[in-house]
Amino acid sequence: MEEKSSLAISNRVDGYLALGCLTIFAVQGLQNSQVKGSVIPATIDTSLLVAVQLGFWLMVIGTILASLLVRRMHPAELFGLDRLDFKKTVIWGAGLLIAALPLIFASSAVVSSLLHVNSQKDSQPIMQLFERVPEPTRKIPIILLAVVIAPLAEEFFFRGFLYGVLKRYAGPLPALVFTGVVFAVIHLHVPSLLPLFVLACVLTLAYELSGSLLVPMGMHALFNAITLVGVFFAR
């Protein structure tokens, strides 16, 4: 009886944390949507931009980790971080991403056709900034953000934490769909909504199939790296 009560309290804590984080994302999204124009100025300090993003994610993830540790829950065990060795993680990640890329690219082509946009020229603002910044040294923080910070932070929150919490309350399919929608919407880029939703669903399935959060983290990092390379050579 005491164990059930403790589990119920733990579930409520996770639910409140998830709701609080989603509220922060919603407020941040509303603020960003009110800014005129979606293009990030090429003169912006990219190091400062990355520092702000890193600080935001440290706050969000730090709060979640602190909550887990206080409840004596081990993140490595919860998220399967020690489930697969490096070789198996790479095989899982690369294989699943290669299998999913045609679907992601097809969804991007469908959106481009329906909205009459060029998927390369109308990419996400951070990718446009990467293309416009002339100095290689100013591109490095963007690469760090796209290939390291975003994959680790977003996968920890969306796949590891949010999906896990929603799965307990609503089941795997509603959790997959809702997490995918939120993941796509927070990027605030209409042409990328469907491709990002598809990517999010693929990453969630990869997490379920492999049992290790390292797999979607690696897939996310590789996908962003491929996107950056595509932007660089499309100039």
Number of DSSP helical runs: 9
Order of helices and strands: HHHHHHHHH
Rounded Rg: 18 Å
Distance between the termini: 63 Å
Give the strand tally. Answer: 0
Helix share, percent: over 70%
* Overall pLDDT metric: 89
- What is the global morphology? globular
User: How does the major sheet shape up?
Assistant: none
Structural class: mainly alpha
Report strand %.
under 5%
* Low-pLDDT residue intervals, each spanning 5 or more residues: none
Structure described in brief:
This protein is mostly helical and 235 residues long. The protein contains nine helices and no strands. Helix 4 packs across helix 9 (214-233), helix 7 (172-185) packs across helix 8 (193-210) and helix 8 runs antiparallel to helix 9.
Keywords:
9 helices; mainly alpha
Summarize the structure in words:
By secondary structure, this protein is an all-alpha fold. It has nine helices and no strands. It is globular and about 55 Å long. The termini are far apart. The mean pLDDT is 89.
